[in-house]
Amino acid sequence: QYSIKNALRDGRLTEQELQQYKTGKIPISEFALLVAGDNKKQPQMNSTRMSTTNTLNSTPSDLSTPKKILPIAGIMDTTTETCYTIRNATMNKLIDPTTAQKLLEAQASTGGIIDISNSQRYTVNKAAVRGLVEDSHLQRLLNAQKAFTGVEDPMTKERLSVGEAVQKGWMPKDTAIHYMEAQHLTGGLINPKTGQRVSIFNAIGSKMIDSTMMRELQSESTYPKDIVDPITKEKISYKQALDRCKIDPVSGLPMLPASSKESGYISNSAFCPQKDRCCVA
Fold first, then answer.
1. Domains and CATH numbers, the chain
2. Which stretches of 40-96 are DSSP H helices?
3. pLDDT tens-digit profile of 21-38?
4. Torsional sign, CA 75, 96, 172, 152
5. Which one of 111, 153, 185, 234 counts the least CB within 10 Å of its CB?
């Protein structure tokens, strides 16, 4: 569908990246993004500066699409007013590893891993190079990333949305529903063919999801509670976590509140670790 020759000519793809893809150093999902570029309205994950209202370059035309918001970008220590990346918050014991994994999967499935130091999003592989994710999380995050870039149908080579992949048996529903929830809550399901956000009503019309998936996405009160609130320690859903976020006044990014006082981790408020920084302007 996309021309590699045109991508090289237009500067969206370099010869080095083409060779890396041919030798298996760049996964097909990331290569597809490079080839597609902006002119096909593909969502960008590599070094894309974010806004608080729009994580994709393209804007859906239907008014039924909910307003776009960002996924949870990091953790805010309310004791020291310091913001942390998900990985550093885990290392500092502000959040538990399972919560960290779920937050990162939500980022990967909606447009890329967030670096709060520069308000940019990166593919999973590039995020690993930047130290934003643990190597042990890579495979699960790469799977989550497919919800954004598309799942390749091994028979037709077509790029499928995550809902279509479930219907065709290429992705387990229990795994996929988490990705769809994150997309739905941050502005709509992602159609990897166009890069656009799609409301669940339009998604069922285009068979991106079936009626069962639609009911599950509409019933937000029944979303799985697999995140631990860092302050109250109660099990909450991703929607509840989003609702409890505070906006970092410096970057405008949503941060899940935590407390180093409660966790037992002592942070020097005058020092902001690498890739993290004080939240107060």
1. 1-40 (no CATH), 49-278 (3.90.1290.10)
2. 86-91
3. 777 766 666 676 677 653
4. positive
5. 234
